Every structure is written in C-alpha cells, then in structure tokens.
C-alpha cells in the first residue's frame, strides 16, 4: 500500500475537533496544494477565504453554519467562494498573467483569449456561476488530500446558510458567493464518535466500470 493510500485511509470527515492550532507550515502546504489544483482553462474562478479569528468562527457557527460542531473548534475555516459573475476583465487579467509568467506576448495568446470569450464568457451568469462552483470543488479535493498528507483533519461542509455567510464575510461586495467550507484542525479522540470507526466504501468492482 502506498503512503498516499495510507494517508487517505487515515483521514475521515472529522465530527469533533479539539481546538489545537495547525502549524503555519502545514497550513501553507495545504493552501499551496489548493492553489495548484487544476481548473477549466486554468482560470481559477473562485477565491478561498481563510478564517482563523475565534470570534469570527463563533459568529459563523451561531449565525450561518447550523451550529455544526467542527466550526468553533477548528484551527482554520477555508471558505471556497465562486465568482458570482465572470467578466471580460477576469479573462484579460488571466491572459496577462499567462504572458508574464511564461514570458510570451499577449498577441500570441489571441486565439486562446478568443476561445474563452466565445465559449465561457458567452454563457449566462447562472451557468458560469455553477461552472465556477464546480471548479472550486476540484480545489476542495486537492485541499482534502493535502490535509491528509500533512495529517491534518479536514471536514468538507455544505450544511450552512450561504447567504448569511456571504453577509458575515462581505463576499457579495467582492463579487463572490460561498459554495463550500473546509474545516482544518485535529480530531478530538474523546468526543468524536467516529474517531475509531471503519471507513465505509463500496467495493472496487461496484464502484468502477471497465468498458
């Protein structure tokens, strides 16, 4: 069994955390993995809000997160927030970033620029928001795997009032809408009822279909 598979068997959706702080180096590695996640055309149409402040975590717990126990005892909350509206400025900024990063001319990227404008930008706002949210979930997956390799517990969460969370964090003013939360911290061995539970997954031949 590879080391990665061992780590993934170790991880689970932690239900109770003990309040211990995740070291900065481990947090940085998790955030870097999220940054390196793939996204459609490489655009990364989302932002990740990192919340460490205890008062803010408590406010989210009481007002937006359905009092899910992981929220106040987590070391950090990562809120994945999709761009509410994809704009031509987003695309232009991305093209400039490619040009500067790869040391190529903006003119050489004209065809790629045009394909994004004609494909993604031509779609409706609701379609693009759903697309952006799916890209954020890919980054979430990277974060979960990275947390496991760092032996940091992580729980993805959807059961929250997105509109209220957006209000608390001022996301709509930034053109963002929250789509999923990832709590980071360490499992409470005494309070978490699932800490020693076996992982339940469908059998290999039931999950995968070979054609």
- Low confidence ranges: none
Question: How many helices does DSSP assign?
Answer: 9
End-to-end separation: 26 Å
Give the H and E element order.
HHEHHEHHHEHEH
Largest sheet: 4 strands, antiparallel
What is the CA-based Rg, rounded? Answer: 19 Å
Kindly report the spatial arrangement of strands forming the biggest sheet: 1-2-4-3
**Mean pLDDT over the full residue set:** 97
Structural class: alpha+beta
Q: How many extended strands?
A: 4
Helix content: 40-55%
Family: Belongs to the nitroreductase family.
Protein name: Nitroreductase
Cofactor: FMN
Keywords: Flavoprotein, FMN, NADP, Oxidoreductase
Task: Name its key features.
4-stranded antiparallel beta sheet; 14% strand; 211 residues; alpha+beta
Please characterize this protein's 3D structure.
With 211 residues, the chain is of the alpha+beta class. Helix content is 45%, strand content 14%. The protein has nine helices and four strands, in the order ααβααβαααβαβα. The chain has a four-stranded antiparallel β-sheet, with helices on both faces. Helix 2 crosses helix 7 (125-149). The two termini are 26 Å apart. The model has no long low-confidence stretch (mean pLDDT 97). Belongs to the nitroreductase family. Pfam families: Nitroreductase (PF00881). Keywords: Flavoprotein, FMN, NADP, Oxidoreductase. This is Nitroreductase. Its cofactor is FMN.
């Amino acid at each position: 069994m590879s080391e990665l598979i061992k780590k993934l068997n170790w991880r689970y959706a932690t239900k109770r955390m003990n309040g211990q702080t995740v070291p900065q180096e481990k947090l940085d590695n998790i955030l870097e993995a999220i940054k390196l996640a793939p996204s459609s055309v490489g655009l990364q149409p989302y932002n990740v809000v990192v919340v460490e402040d205890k008062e803010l975590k408590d406010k989210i717990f009481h007002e937006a997160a359905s009092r899910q126990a992981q929220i106040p005892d987590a070391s950090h909350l990562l809120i994945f927030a999709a761009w509410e509206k994809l704009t031509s400025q987003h695309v232009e900024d991305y093209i400039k970033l490619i040009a500067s990063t790869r040391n190529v001319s903006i003119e050489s990227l004209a065809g790629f620029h045009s394909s994004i404008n004609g494909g993604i930008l031509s779609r409706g706002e609701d379609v693009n928001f759903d697309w952006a949210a799916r890209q954020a979930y890919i980054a979430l997956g990277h974060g979960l795997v990275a947390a496991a390799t760092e032996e940091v517990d992580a729980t993805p969460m959807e059961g929250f009032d997105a509109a209220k969370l957006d209000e608390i964090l001022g996301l709509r003013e930034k053109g963002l809408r929250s789509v999923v939360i990832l709590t980071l911290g360490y499992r409470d061995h005494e309070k978490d009822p699932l800490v020693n539970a076996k992982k339940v997954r469908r059998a290999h031949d039931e999950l995968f279909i070979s054609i």
